[in-house]
């Protein structure tokens, strides 16, 4: 495991602007967010909670004096640092699989030396060590994925990993049918198989909730095999959800408006009962809470890690608005409708786009708490398309997370040496605008053709709109009860991210957009500079994405990486001489160059064709055409495998974040405590969260 690159997510400037009640609200919402940590750990791997407890117990037994503990264990500084790097990386990813890429990482410190460290601690720590010493170091599993000898997923329990378990796919399909019949949404569920005898087994649909119930599914339709029973079991993660609700109850005392109050109370109801319909009510109200002084996100949000793309990881976020940057984003939001009309599917009919683009709440915040396996530079929520289309959504950019990008030079080695300085200088500027456009217009546009209820359509089925790809009337649409994630399953997240990335890249040359962010022909960095840099980023990010492709399983382990590679592959196939890739396996050199004169005539035109296809497939629920098109683009040939070997050799160090904590003082005020951007600082921050 490589030593991590550590950044501090500073929030002091934003927190200082809050009044006393707002600070108390931020504190209790942050405590609620961090209280979901053990849920995430349980969703990652069977051993993750015990590894977490082991790290925190070691810190506690020496009170953070790692040098003293190492001295007792006769461990030199280098070996101690190897463990601290692992611990910080584990804590920042909330588990022993990278949040970006889902590959398993193991300590670089030898097992026998870590055993000496554990032996110097109290007996409770030694007991934890015995639980984790083998799974902590063991490979496979290599990554997260369907239960098999190479991959594992704790969304699906009881399946034999060593030999693979063919019943997994059958069970997952059966559970999906049952859940659809019972109107159980999948985001906050897991599946567990238990064999009762040689001939019989039971499949439990686990729902996250505080309340505990068990009910047997009445198979009136006869769809369940006689050898299998199905039951619905609530109470998964009940202790953590109860603790979250307790902190939310405290936060209710300091809400600043009725929308906040009602959103939180429905959130509590959902966590208590497991009912996601109530959670969606909370999200609908949350969307209407415009520009709050303390922003928050709580719940089972992103389905990136589920092999089926429908079950979601817990996430807790609290942020403090950055007034200056938020004003710029607000100005973009107010005129965004004029840019929607420039997208390739908006041809005057409006069949595949809303008649009017409703300006979303768009804010830039400093994250105070970001409890998640991966900290994104920006988010667009909620993920429920009925809420997005009928009520609206929010865009949030995390300014202190974006700041880390200005210090990173991802893929710099792929750029010609003569261009590296300029690439590094311009990259954060182009990347920021790309992310902004990705969130507001990438995730915010589109209209699904839907049969909302039997025989009720949001289009004329007798005269359906023409498919701009084929020129024929559309033949597919969403049936009653169908959702984007349900129809597109394992492709839903990566195709959605790919489409959003394409929107941002397609619009990056718009002079009006760039002028909003202060980039004009009179500035130091000119519009052409940003456009050139962004297309060069499309090349380097496409190649870098290969690090998250596993040749052993032939699977992609990160939605954005698959998207980036697919975009590059499309540009290579569909444009003439836009990119030149030079590969030298002997020297591990991989270079990508771009012909500046072809960016608009070849590059943008190619992006337009790819974007149109993905958009129409998405709007019309055409999973068959989408799968054929997208899986072909993201398939890996021998040349790409050669590129991948060089990418792995030059892989960027893992990214780790040091995040702040808040504490209630004796006088009832709130203290903010930030931690140094070192492995020791990261571990101390987590230890003081008292999870």
From TrEMBL:
Class of the enzyme per the UniProt entry, highest EC level: hydrolase
Cofactor binding note of this UniProt entry: Binds 1 zinc ion per subunit.
Locations listed in the record: Cytoplasm
Cofactors, names only: Zn(2+)
Coiled-coil features, chain-numbered ranges: none
Key words, A-Z: Aminopeptidase, Cytoplasm, Hydrolase, Metal-binding, Metalloprotease, Protease, Zinc
InterPro entries in the cross-refs: Dipeptidyl-peptase3 (IPR005317), Peptidase_M49 (IPR039461)
Record keyword tRNA processing present: no
Keyword Protease: yes
Enzyme Commission number, as recorded: 3.4.14.4
Catalytic activities: Release of an N-terminal dipeptide from a peptide comprising four or more residues, with broad specificity. Also acts on dipeptidyl 2-naphthylamides
Entry similarity comment: Belongs to the peptidase M49 family.
Protein name from the UniProt record: Dipeptidyl peptidase 3
Source organism: Aspergillus cavernicola
